[in-house]
Amino acid sequence: MRFFFTFVVLFTFLSTKAQTSLNMTKVYQWSDSTLIPSADHINTYSEIWGYEKDGKEYAIIGSTQGTHIFDITDVNNVDTLAFIPGKFQGDQVIHRDYDTYQDYLYIVCDEGQSSLQIADLSFLPDSAPVVYDSDVLIITSHNLFIDTVAGYLYSCGGATNLGANFLSVYSLTNPTSPQLLVNCANDVPFWNGTIGYVHDIFVENDTAYCNAGDNGLFVVDFSNIGNVQGLGSLTSYTQQGYNHSGWLHKSGDYYALADENHGLDIKILDVTDLSDITFIDTVGANTVQSLSIPHNLIFKDDNLYVSHYFDGIYVFNTSDLNNISLAGYYNTSISIHADAVYQGCWGIYPFLSSGKILASDMQEGLFVFDTDFAIGIEDSSDDNFAFIVYPNPTKNNITVTTTLFNDVLEYSIIDLAGKNVRVGKLSKAQTRINVENIASGVYVFSILKSDGIRVVKKFIKE
């Protein structure tokens, strides 16, 4: 079944923040005004994570002081279960990051004289004792990712006892006693000259997608830890910026990549051939085109969950890559879009069995949501209708290709203010339209079908 925006939903999505949510209902929020915000970004809170066991669900959020754990099984009766003080605390703390393996929570911080902490969650809801707290292996780290199949912990950035860290890999054969397997800068001959610093990473079956900042995306095979091999890379792409984070779709066929820059969209990439990674499309909030910033993102099934700083949470349905649609959003942030400022929604966690969505906002704290992604999205009466607009971005012309084209169809090109800048008719299954004389920016190509349903596709005029 294929889903499409209604025109009203799309217009609201692109042109205003007056409507602050779509298909997402806040059922719980927590913040603590006694906690000290950071000096750099006025952020008290950072990463969000989740954990569940024995029918209970838990939210885990980082702050400038440490790690806070909540029982959110019953959102009407939330319990604050545990606080784990960070080894380094205070207004210099910006980043804490988390991952879980078996019943253990792995905790890092990217500032100060910090450490790797491991907490045993198997005692919840009674306690979460720290069973390891040491800087022998990891002093600071920007991001963690655990490949649960291999039992490997990947630490991105920060510093180890070997000095500044680009990427290091640790064995969790004994989950409470990690062992260093490889420090990539020191042990992988090609690393420093090609990949360098890895900001964040996604790993599945020993294949690591390394988000390497200004250097781009690199895919690396860690199946033989003594002979690490590069599999592919993308070092130049549309709307390229600082490659901050990414996530692989469950099919393994496409990858979502977020450049942490004002005004840049998320890129969807075809990774079926790692020797020839190609661009598919862009998606993004675009509420303030030049200032919206994607941060962290996670695929769960066909939904791409994005923490989008000032714009809050955005969820995109990618079941049809020719017609990626907005499934839901919620504006967690009260911060005003501003250049060179990074505030708002930091992280999102969509994996709880109940369907609850967890999110963290840098200023506003912990959020828990219920969702109904069916509301506000039209079910097309013609399951086989689809259309694509390409090239995207474009400078001079767009080509519109449709399926099941039996009638003359009306089209509109709409700017972010909701104004029609071009109208016309499509009279064949593939139509070339000149857009050379419209201003640079983000537009919506809208088709009014014969059954009265309006379907849309975003494109960028360079």
Based on the model shown, name its key terms.
mainly beta; disordered N terminus; Immunoglobulin-like; 462 residues; four-stranded antiparallel beta sheet; Methylamine Dehydrogenase, Chain H
SSE blueprint:
Elements lengths: L2 E3 L1 H9 L5 E2 L1 E7 L14 E9 L2 E8 L2 E6 L7 E7 L10 E6 L2 E6 L6 E5 L9 E5 L3 E3 L2 E5 L4 E5 L2 E2 L2 E2 L2 E5 L7 E5 H4 L3 H4 L5 E5 L2 E5 L5 E5 L7 E6 L8 E6 L5 E6 L6 E5 L7 E6 L12 E5 L2 E5 L5 E5 L7 E6 L14 E5 L7 E5 L3 E7 L5 E3 L7 E4 L6 E6 L6 E6 L5 E7 L3 E5 L6 E8 L5 E8 L1
Antiparallel strand pairs: 1-34, 2-30, 3-33, 4-5, 5-6, 6-7, 8-9, 9-10, 10-11, 12-15, 13-14, 14-17, 15-16, 17-18, 19-20, 20-21, 21-22, 23-24, 24-25, 25-26, 27-28, 28-29, 29-30, 31-32, 32-33, 35-36, 36-39, 37-38, 37-40, 40-41
Notes on the structure:
With 462 residues, this protein is mainly β. The chain folds into two domains: 3-377, YVTN repeat-like/Quinoprotein amine dehydrogenase (Methylamine Dehydrogenase, Chain H, 7 Propeller); 384-461, Immunoglobulin-like, CATH 2.60.40.1930. The chain contains three helices and 41 strands. Strands 2-30-29-28-27 form a five-stranded antiparallel beta sheet, with no helix packed on it. The radius of gyration is 23 Å and the shape is globular.
CATH topology of the largest domain: Methylamine Dehydrogenase, Chain H
Distance between the termini: 33 Å
* Helical content class: under 10%
**How many domains, in number, for the residues?**
2
What is the CATH class designation of the largest domain?
Mainly Beta
Mean pLDDT: 89
How are the strands ordered across the major sheet? 2-30-29-28-27
Low-confidence stretches: 1-19, 374-384
Architecture per CATH nomenclature, i.e. the level-2 architecture of the largest domain? 7 Propeller
What would the principal axes of the Cα set say about the shape? globular
Under CATH, the homologous superfamily of the largest domain reads YVTN repeat-like/Quinoprotein amine dehydrogenase
- Annotation, overall tally of beta strands: 41
Can you count the helices? 3
Estimate the strand proportion: over 45%
Structural class: mainly beta
Q: How would you sum up the major sheet?
A: 5 strands, antiparallel
Radius of gyration: 23 Å
